Amino acid sequence: MTYIIHPIVMGTKVFDKGMMTYQHDYGTPYTIPIYCWYLEGGDKKILVDTGEMHPVISEEREKAIGGKIHTFDEGLARYGLTPEDIDIVLHTHLHNDHCENDARCVNAKIYVHEKELARIHDPHPLDFRYLEDYIEEAEENGQIVPLTGDTEIAPGITMIHTPAHTEGGMSVRVETDKGSVLICGFCTILENLYPPKAVTAMEMEVIPPGTHVNAYEAYETLTRAKTLADHILPLHEPKWAGMESVPE
């Protein structure tokens, strides 16, 4: 089974680039897209993450990322879908910008690592991005499927534990007609996985995400992730914002 991966921008963040690139480019303003990924193919309607509930939509932000920003309903409607049509949601992690629309997907099974569930209900003070309000309704409805490790969700789709940004981060490997594709489970851009010469000259193969639990473990996870598929899709890379499907 092969799929087509559609990146749908459902939010943005404007902040210091160092939030993405640990120990590099602090003081540089940067805008990242927040994606919901629609995996087209098979007999199930599958999303990776659900984006923001009320995204800021402005010409300035769209210009910064090179693509359109959508509400959840508008983004799904591009593919003839409604929130009620979604059968499966695969979570890279449970920071708020990745799960704010979970409650809208009333008919979906929601797959997420058990460590993310533990964190969202008992977050460390340093990690304010966990807000349990966004998943409580889905939990009450029995929609959550906790995972403990690598799991095949459907033929051609496997979730892989990649703790770099969070303890329960899960990347999603998807088989496409252009080879295997890894949607990263950690918040990065292309530069994290493929650093410039100034960084590789320091004998660094990758740049850990600016937000992480353990910098050393994050470095090793990113290095390993590059071996897991033919194509790597960093979770917040602006390049995907203007594309209908990835990889091109």
From TrEMBL:
Gene3D superfamilies: Ribonuclease Z/Hydroxyacylglutathione hydrolase-like. GO terms for molecular function: hydrolase activity; metal ion binding. Residues 33-236 form the Metallo-beta-lactamase domain. InterPro entries: MBL_superfamily_lactonases (IPR051013), Metallo-B-lactamas (IPR001279), RibonucZ/Hydroxyglut_hydro (IPR036866). Its cofactor is Zn(2+). The keyword Metal-binding applies. Pfam families: Lactamase_B. Keywords: Hydrolase, Metal-binding, Zinc. CDD domains: AHL_lactonase_MBL-fold. Belongs to the metallo-beta-lactamase superfamily. This is Metallo-beta-lactamase superfamily protein. It comes from Desulfomicrobium norvegicum (strain DSM 1741 / NCIMB 8310) (Desulfovibrio baculatus (strain Norway 4)).
